[in-house]
Amino acid sequence: MSVDAFASQGSMLLTPKHEVHKARRQPLNPFFSKARVSSHQDMIDQHLDKLCDRISVFAESRETFNFGAAITAFVRDVAFDFIPGKSYKSLDHDDFDEVMVAASSGSGQVWRASKHLRG
């Protein structure tokens, strides 16, 4: 178990108390309100349609593909379109931009190791 991770004294993960977590989260709340997410439903649907179309092509050709990379590409495209407003078009890559999957998977290993280091 990691305690005091990332110099956040008394915390099990990153935030020591509910009040502190709430205060830290508050600036982000407007980005993830129900109204804001609903206003982006068309964009989410467009990415979902693209994902489904790509999967259909693979199904028709009976060609295998990395489903995890496909889902990750969908999530990445939605997240980047939603938050910074810039799409990397991972769903358009033939391999669903698997290089990004490998890069982000590697960051988890770094976090698991670094969470035990004192700040």
From TrEMBL:
<dbReference type="InterPro" id="IPR036396">
    <property type="entry name" value="Cyt_P450_sf"/>
</dbReference>
<dbReference type="GO" id="GO:0020037">
    <property type="term" value="F:heme binding"/>
</dbReference>
<dbReference type="GO" id="GO:0005506">
    <property type="term" value="F:iron ion binding"/>
</dbReference>
<protein>
    <submittedName>
        <fullName>Putative cytochrome p450 protein</fullName>
    </submittedName>
</protein>
<dbReference type="GO" id="GO:0004497">
    <property type="term" value="F:monooxygenase activity"/>
</dbReference>
<dbReference type="GO" id="GO:0016705">
    <property type="term" value="F:oxidoreductase activity, acting on paired donors, with incorporation or reduction of molecular oxygen"/>
</dbReference>
